[in-house]
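pasting input
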Amino acid sequence: LVAKTPHDEL
Amino acid sequence: MNVFRILGDVSHLLAMILLLLKIWRSKCCTGISGKSQILFALVFTTRYLDLFTNFVSLYNTVMKVIFLLCAYLTVYMIYGKFRKTFDSENDTFRLEFLLVPITGLSFLENYSFTPLEILWTFSIYLESVAILPQLFMISKTGEAETITTHYLFFLGLYRALYLANWIWRYHTENFYDQIAVVSGVVQTIFYCDFFYLYVTKVLKGKKLSLP
């Protein structure tokens, strides 16, 4: 799994 | 920000406002699952904790606050102001069947083992199943008011538009959020059966009732 933080979606 | 994302967010907002207006105008929340609405409030609460730690954009912050307010206002309408009209006898979905596995899964499959990130993951998994108490209630009573079906339609449309948003972002930004995408697909699948009934019945002017 790839980190996608910080999250930019609602 | 692409057109699918913005239309998805608008559709999500429209769904919540539609539900609030329906309850407010009719002063009645019969047919609405309070449990689903509690789950949505929990979804937003656990996901938007990053309001305090991370600034994305003014749009992002404002929308998060509006979503939180709408969710809590809806819960208050159902369990507070108009609780006499709340049909709790048909809102019998067992929440622990959702919460226990989802809590476990968010500890096992996440991007990083930190409290905020586990809560974010929990909220993504929870959102994908949060509508189940509502769908369960409709299958139990066998019918839904037309305005409730419009609410569900916009909520499902929001999910479908987010799928298009992710396909778009994958091709244009190389963005790929595996947890959100898998949960989003699962969530959208739950609405397919409902979409079919919506198109074949509600859009032809009939009330949604199950045989």
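fyi Chain A has a mean pLDDT of 75.
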